[in-house]
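# step 3/5: fold
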Amino acid sequence: MPTPTSGPAPAVPSSTSDPNAPGLPPGPPPERPGAHASAAPGGVDGYALTAVALALRGAPYRDGGADPKGFDCSGFTQYVFAQFGVALPRAVRDQFRMGRSLSPEDLAAGDLIFFSTTEPGVSHVAIAIGGDEFIHAPSSTGVVRVEHLSSSYWAPRYVGARRLK
């Protein structure tokens, strides 16, 4: 199983011990560290990947940002996946060409979710964390946060999802 490649992984929020806590993938945690408990994008444990993403909640938005000092949406996904040795392209449209297409009902922790927000076609990317929730770097007025795919804002903007395998 790939391990983080650049320095120590961010601390996992203490709420990860409660598998039913808001913002966490549903179901029991892996039986042991490194267990493949989800759809394992690119061979990476989806729960471990989302734990790293969740640890970045509150990081500010920064146009062109790709580190914890500030992220834009594709910089956030690129940074999180890089912690597990998975190289993603920098642009949202290029990330949308990666992996294989999924239907919304097949989403699992660690899958990429794409939206049309600022322009026609794919213009925003997020990481599925389980159930109806995803985490992303939303806009110039926001911070990295968890939201619901079924919300009145995000549902009509959904374009597709990809699994890296």
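# step 4/5: annotate
The two ends are 13 Å apart (CA to CA).
# step 5/5: archive (pending)
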